[in-house]
Amino acid sequence: MSDGAVSPDTSTEIEDPHEGGFRAHTAITTERGGPRYGEFSEQVRTLMDRARYACPTPELTDELIDQLAAINDKLAAVRIDEWHSPAGTRIDLPARGNITLPPFEVTDVNDDGVFATVTFRDFHLGGNKAAHGGQVAVAFDDLGGYASAVAIQGVSRTAYLTVQYRSITPLNTPLQCRTWAEKVDGRKVFIKGTIHDGDRLCAEMDALFIKLNPGQQ
Ligand SMILES: CCCCCCCC(=O)SCCNC(=O)CCNC(=O)[C@H](O)C(C)(C)COP(=O)(O)OP(=O)(O)OC[C@H]1O[C@@H](n2cnc3c(N)ncnc32)[C@H](O)[C@@H]1OP(=O)(O)O
Question: What range(s) does the Thioesterase domain occupy (predicted)?
């Protein structure tokens, strides 16, 4: 760190409940960030959407830098560990409040798998109005992990994930995603997935998740 630089404030880390995997033994709560945290997440997503397509004047760029720096300073002052951050733990919000995921809402979980509506936004643009292929994989990874968790009632990590891009995945369109466990063989969980725009198949996933051993990172 250079002279005079200040480290981000991480003093709010009050405990480390991490015992392996990527889930902590913390109570599930929908309180963190307050009742309007979902609106906050939506504003962050909208910021990224608008920034993706904006061409500000140099003067506006100057102004926005100052405003965003002020916001970033406020957020840095309330930095906390990943286990207690509402982003990723607010199960009442789209994509658990995780702003790095394409927002999705799980509509059903049953013997046929996990069913969700996922919407790729302007900031997920790949090119020519289509979603970026990597973002499609992100959606599959998270919702595939969900299907794996349901199948084994435990935590797993992705060993491999392949995507077949069958047709254009549109932006700003509620799409139907289904992920399901095709086979469980010991610690190996073979997961399949599809994303449809109505009747049209956009992409398919074939993935292997490995159930983590106790304490495994
Ligand atoms: C609800 C929230 C959902 C969120 C989901 C998000 C999921 C993620 O993004 S996880 C992040 C991305 N993934 C990673 O970082 C994982 C990195 N890799 C690893 O940590 C390890 O390689 C890991 C855990 C996958 C497997 O390692 P390890 O636990 O030592 O298992 P290992 O003994 O090597 O393999 C177990 C079995 O799987 C097989 N296997 C492991 N990796 C592969 C692979 N890539 N391809 C094929 N088979 C494999 C092995 O051959 C072995 O098979 P068998 O039992 O028949 O001999």
Answer: 130-200
